[in-house]
Design a protein that fits this description.
This is UPF0260 protein D104_09375. By secondary structure, the protein is an alpha+beta fold. It contains six helices and seven strands. The strands form two sheets. Strands 1, 2, 5, 6 and 7 form a five-stranded mixed sheet that branches. A two-stranded antiparallel ribbon has the order 3-4. It is globular. The chain binds iron/sulfur cluster (SF4) (2 copies). One iron/sulfur cluster (SF4) binds next to helix 4.
Length: 159
């Protein structure tokens, strides 16, 4: 008898049909969505900065107030399956966006590697560059705008 090939849940279950636990496990914990963003008034274009929300632990890349984040930080967005069509604002390495667009998780994902070690090796979390938003005057946030190049940040001059 030939054994049935095991397919992991993210290959067989669309994002919108995942259980809450499966949905949460797709997050790779990069912390990039917790970076502050600026939006161009005229074009609506969204620019990422390297400034992290003050509630992000930049070493673990975990939210310090995860359970109460939306009352602690009113602008915090909770990703839900019904927003899938709006995921283009997420960084292009975000596993929700990648899975939605390509149907494959990247080979560095903790669900495939078993830990975040490959993400850290490739510099794919914000751990090494996030700057606490509270240490920079809002008038200077534009100088912190970045662009993503292969999942890592590079300075971006918007002028
Ligand atoms: S950008 Fe995506 S994968 Fe990274 S922490 Fe945010 S939701 Fe998770
Ligand atoms: S409150 Fe937590 S989840 Fe929300 S943006 Fe800040 S660090 Fe991220």
């Amino acid at each position: 008898m030939i054994a049935k090939r095991y397919e992991p849940f993210w290959k067989t279950t669309p994002l919108e049909k995942m259980s809450p636990v499966e949905w949460e496990s797709i997050c790779d914990g990069c912390g990039k969505c917790c970076l502050q963003k600026l939006q161009d008034d005229e074009t609506d274009e969204v620019f990422y900065t390297d400034l992290s929300c003050h509630q992000l632990n930049a070493v673990s890349c975990q939210c310090k107030v995860y359970e109460t984040r939306q009352t602690e930080v009113p602008g915090c967005i909770t990703l839900t399956p019904d927003q899938i069509d709006e995921f283009q604002w997420l960084p292009d390495t975000c596993s929700y966006r990648v899975l939605h667009e390509t149907k494959e998780l990247p080979n560095w994902h903790p669900l495939l590697v078993g830990s975040d070690k490959e993400m850290l090796r490739q510099g794919l979390t914000v751990r090494h560059y996030a700057v606490n938003e509270q240490t920079v005057d809002e008038d200077d946030w534009e100088t912190h705008i970045i662009k993503w190049v292969h999942g890592t940040p590079e300075p971006y001059d918007v002028t």
